[in-house]
Amino acid sequence: MLTLGGKSTMLGHWRIALRQAEESARAGRFDEALAMVNRQGVADHRLAVKLRNRLVLDLVARASRRADADDVPGAIADLNLAGQHGVAPDVLAAARLRLAEQVADEVRLHLDTGEPGRVVEMVEALAKDHVGGPTLRRMREAAEAWQLGLDEQRRGEFGLARDSFDRAERLAGDSAAAPLSDARRDLAARQEASKPLIERLYAALSATNWGDTLAAAEAVLDALPDHPAARQARSRAWQQIGGLSPNAALPARADRVANGPVCEPRAAADQDDGIMILDIQDRSPRWPDAALRPVPKSGNARLFRANAPVRQVDPQGPGGRFLLWADAIGGYLVCQGDRVVLGRAGPEGLADVPLLGDLSRQHATIIRDGDGYVLKAHHPCFVNGRRIDTTSLRQGDVIRLGASVELEFHQPSPVSASARLSFVSRHRLPVAVDGILLMAETCIIGPSAQAHIRATDLKTPVVLYHQDSALWCRAAGTFEVDGHPQVARAPLGPTSKVQGDRFSFSLEPLATRSDLT
User: Fold this and answer.
1) Three-state secondary structure of 400-461
2) Are 365 and 353 in contact (CB under 8 A)?
3) Helix axes 158-172, 177-206, angle to 10 degrees
4) Entry pTM
5) N or C: which end of the chain has fewer CB within 10 A?
6) What are the pLDDT digits (tens) for 459-512?
7) Taking a C-beta distance cutoff of 8 angstroms, is the pair 505, 498 a contact?
8) φ, ψ (nearest 5 deg) of residue 464
């Protein structure tokens, strides 16, 4: 009787579970229904197997209805749930292909309105959920070719850009005809407009006129923001101008340079005892030399003390900042602290990374947390378009501060906690650098994609690293530090100049934040 009673109890258990699963399915709670069907002691029963097969097919059918109602996330969730609970692979593959064709019209709309980046993003997101097909694949290839053309155009590689646009047009077929035609016209206009600017840049470089070089480089970068020769020339010009006397020739007028220097000396009578009065002609001043320090003054002018003593901060110390100028590569602001404040540039600024933009003085903080980084917002901040208060940063995240200042986060090396911030928007620092390094224990300069600073001419990487509270350089073979030969490794000082086989860089210390207020 006990055995029979046990069987009766078990029999009642699976019947109750199946009845509850039926009720949950009728209410649209398929995840709950499947959980009941898969209970121990129920899952292997013949009726439970039959019900489970019916439930996953119902999920596939509901996914199709959700897609028709433009509920693509809901459709994907239903298909994923059906896949987890054993729907036939051919049924699932056909459903996903059908869904891909249903969402293709929405993806094509972004292609038709000239948003190739959005198309790539959408197709990649769908692919992560195994939703794809020939139509989406072809649109993605068209969008990638289009985006590549835009990137090549920004570098001034007009022939390659034209070829990429041709390929995008072939792949897109009847889609995106109008915006691709507009892209071609813009390409031709930029090529025509930039030709004399590039000629002027190379002429200034040949004459080693650093004031004209800076002006010409800024003009080229206004038209072609990623032009490699102009970026290198701008960095080199700032290095040279920073070492000149206060009365040395700078670009003649600010309005000759798009986004260029906006401070111009007044008459010589206004100069006295090493003090220069500079008119501020724009809200975005650039200070090429850390020795030209703003001093508050009434009116529309500020007082700058030329060659004023600036308390040098040892870049080897924790929390220090310094500039790293790498010949033929570019300049970088190196921040060594575990907490780095991003904010508005200016004499009253309190930011470790002062940006020329409409920001608060302390807009956000990046905090190194072990081997990762966390962004903490003090004022409106967005990561990949989503507003955040505090979030962990991942490779490739785009950080937007305020309405328009954008930086991209990179942590390229799996063996180093150091990271790099590159500029996405046109907002820059007061000193013309190419990026910001958040240096932990090491900084890698090398030819691979895992280097923090890419140097394609190097055969082997050069590594900066901390040891015993000092900053050291490690490189293969022999090299020079401040004119003295070294082998394999050597300590660096605050203003060291390093010269080796196919590499050369120098360090420049910065004042503390309080010294800039």
Assistant:
1) EECCCEEEEEECCCCCCCCEEEEECCCCCCCCCCCEEEECCCEEEEECCCCCCEECCCCCCC
2) no
3) 170
4) 0.47
5) N
6) 889 999 988 778 999 998 899 999 999 998 999 998 999 999 889 999 998 865
7) yes
8) -95, 135
